[in-house]
Amino acid sequence: MPDQEELKRLSEENARLREELERTRSPGTGPGPAPTEAAVTSPAPGPALAAPDRSTGFFGAVIAGVALLCLATLGISQWGQPTPPSTSSTVASATEAAASAESAADASATAAQAAADAAAAARSVVAAPTAPPPAVVRPASSWAYDVREDSMGGKTKTACVWSSDLISLSWPYPAAQRMQLCIRKSPQFGLDAYASLERDGQILCNVYSNCHIRVRFDDKAAQAWSGADAADGSTNIVFLRRTSSLVAGLKSAKRLRLELDFYQNGRQSVEFDVQGFEWP
Q: In terms of residue numbers, what domain contains 179?
């Protein structure tokens, strides 16, 4: 801002110069010697040279002083005010500020999305149920299990499986038949095992003839086990001794072969798919 004292002094100087200018333009108004008669009546002896007009020089000086005063006043007022910024620089600054704000907003959005994804992942990990233990895959079984209760409350449990091939018999019996192998546990007979024809036939085996049945588990060596006929005289069934050994072998085997002697048809082997056998 301009100095107040300087402005006041310049104003007073300007007023004084104006008063001097007014007095110069109006001569004779002030006190002075009255003109003489000679000066009034006597003609000029000739063309007189014009005297220099001092008022004109003084007036020019006054005008110059006023101009200098105005310039000084204008300079002081400009020195006290800051230079306004240009329009182009203002627009550039605004553009840069907007770009910075947009970048900051994008960064904030990215951080917020990352935080949301992390929270969702944490929730999914917490909420994920514990995977159950893998189920025990049991081999397909051809065994059929049955439990029957008698009138006295005794329970007979059986596990039976049919042969995968056929026995060939001649007349008067059915020509092609399957055989069935059963493990049985009953209150009357305890634990026993037997093999029987699907229909009629005659298996040559009794306790008096020293009957032997060849038994083979998988690819192991065949064994000769003793056998016995039924107590009621049925000829289409034969009982195998060493039942406990047979049950133990069935639990680990996949295939069982039995070789039996048939009336007028010789010795024939029959095969059973025994995998998946379960017995307490």
A: 144-273
